[in-house]
Design brief:
With 165 residues, this protein is mainly alpha-helical. The protein is built from 7 helices and 3 strands.
Length: 165
């Protein structure tokens, strides 16, 4: 039995939300199966589902679940954990998944900044391409600072709103 059916929620309404939100995530660039798995986890009351539960709810194969979870774990959107006393894994979405995902993008920005610095040096800072590269580098440096400041404001806001720090 799926969680939505067992909790008294309208399974059809839950499924409609999952597919609708997943479509929005896909439009924003997320892989389709990963978006569906993430939306299903987000919509589950416990925020935890097994591969079998996800397969049943989404009508997809265990292999599709596995691939989606691998992507979501790499992007820090979900975590894997063992069911107590079992070899089965379950997948968890956390309340701070957006914070974690954005925070972990900092490493990507740092790598891009390093590559762009090399590009400016290679192309020459006074060439049109070098200036374009330098402007792109400045943009990423600006974004990095803004994201860090925004994340700090979020921690304060979250603590006030949800009593979590």
């Amino acid at each position: 039995m799926t969680e939505s059916a067992g909790s008294g929620r309208d399974a059809e309404a839950v499924s409609k939300f999952v597919e609708s939100f997943a479509a929005q995530l896909v439009e924003a660039g997320m892989q389709r199966m990963a978006a569906r798995v993430f939306a299903a986890l987000l919509a589950s009351d416990k925020g935890v589902l097994t591969s079998a539960e996800l397969s049943e709810q989404l009508q997809i194969s265990p292999a599709a679940v596995s691939g989606a979870v691998r992507y979501l774990a790499q992007t820090h959107m979900v975590s894997r954990e063992r069911e107590p006393g079992s070899r089965r894994e379950r997948y968890r979405v956390h309340g701070d998944q957006w914070y974690e995902a954005l925070t972990n993008r900092e490493a990507v920005l740092k790598r891009w900044e390093g590559a762009l610095r090399e590009g400016v040096a290679s192309l020459g800072p006074d060439t049109p391409a070098g200036r374009r590269m330098a402007e792109t580098l400045a943009f990423f440096e600006f974004i990095e600072g803004e994201v860090a400041a925004m994340m700090e404001r979020w921690r304060v806001y979250r603590g006030k709103t949800f009593g979590q720090g």
